[in-house]
Input
Amino acid sequence: MSQREGAETVALQAVAWLAGNDDLLPVFLGASGASLDDLRAGAAARDGAVLGAVLDFVMMDEAWLTAFCEAAGLDLEAPRRARQALPGGAEVNWT
Output
C-alpha cells in the first residue's frame, strides 16, 4: 500500500466516523458548506480535497481527534501523517 493509499484509508475512516456522529456531522457540513451528497461523492471518488477537509476538521479539536482515533484504533499522530500525504497537506496552516 502506498503512502497516499494509506492516507486515503485513514481519511475514509474519518469520513465514516464523522457520518456516524449525529452531533458533529451537521457542524462539519455547516462549516464546510458541503452537503451530505458532496461528502459521499468526495469520499467515494477519494477526492483528496474532501478527504483533507475532513481530516482538517477532525484535528481542529483534541476531543474530536481523540474520539476518532480511539474509535478507529489509530494513534493520535495517524490523522496528521495522513493529512500530510494528501493534496494540500504539506502547506502550513497557522490558524
